[in-house]
Amino acid sequence: MKKHLLALAALATVSGAAFAQSNVTVYGFIDAGILTTNNATGGKNATMATSGQWFPSMIGFTGSEDLGGGLKANFNLQGSLTNQTGAAGDATNSSGTSLFGRYATVGLSGAYGKLDLGRQIDIMFLQSFVNGVIPTHTNSLAVNGLLAYGTAANTNSSTSGAFVNNAVAYVSPSFNGLKLQVQSSVGGQAGDKTKASQTAGILNYDAGSLSLSAGYEVANDASGGTAAKKSLVGAKYTIGQVLLAAQYHTYEQGVAAGKTVDARGYEIGLGYQLTPATLVAVNYEDMKDDKATTDKSPKIVSLKAKYDLSKRTYLYGTVANFNKDAAGAIYQGYASTKGSNTKSANNIGLGVVHSF
């Protein structure tokens, strides 16, 4: 008995010492809302509860350990959830049902930048999300362009193309406002390292009131042929209480075998800080796919509003119009419903987001 007690005491001492040298943070977002549309599945009216309509609902664990000399070891585990049902994954199931389907990384950081290995969000998708006038799930080129065109490019990507398996990512330090991001997915195929691989690079410039971005991505299929290409350029500028944002995106799929998607889209937004707690914005998205036989030219115009109740909780509202091509091709309000492509759709969304 005494031996068992001594062993437990020793274990507690060792564990305490280990945790004293590192830290772990639990974090997350819960987004619960209601969406009403006049053109849901089958072209019918629908009112539904939503999760992740404005911002992704998620839970995560992150931490770091000081290794000395300015070097740190870091990890990030992050999973999506649908808070209406408690299920893993989001409304469109783009992150799958994995426990940590968004991030499962470990890496190092220091004076020369940050290196992470493991499953990650595609940096091109993440940059497009950030480029929006108000970064939101609903009515943004990042999500709508991905849902319409950005499907899986290689065997290491998820079915949505927003997440990348077997990834290695590097973020450089900032040099006079310039920062480089590189992300590569290792194919692991015998005989050719380019098979099922994916590589993306983004250059960012941040001057406080002005931010610019430019990125390019190439993905190969299991035979080594070019399966998809993406590119983007974006800019955001703040003038007092006014925020201006614009970006241009391209999507190409089936490049080696003959393009099945040859699409481009742009997004422009105008935001205004009405009060310290209230931000409103109008947003317009225009997309076109030269290879599509239907839903060739989705267009969406939306009005968004966000009201901060505190530093961690806010209310949101959206009003949007989808033309008939957008209604048929894109999930409305990030709810798992698409409308008929024979008529346009109008929707209203309301909700609350709490972070922890």
TrEMBL record:
Keywords on record: Cell outer membrane, Ion transport, Membrane, Porin, Signal, Transmembrane, Transmembrane beta strand, Transport
Bilayer disposition of the protein: Multi-pass membrane protein
Organism: Polynucleobacter victoriensis
Molecular-function GO terms, alphabetical: porin activity
Record's protein name: Outer membrane protein (Porin)
GO cellular component, one term: pore complex
Compartment(s) of residence: Cell outer membrane
Subunit-structure text: Homotrimer.
Domain Porin: 7-326
Gene3D superfamilies, A to Z: Porin
One of the GO biological process terms: monoatomic ion transport
Signal peptide: 1-20
Listed Pfam families: Porin_4
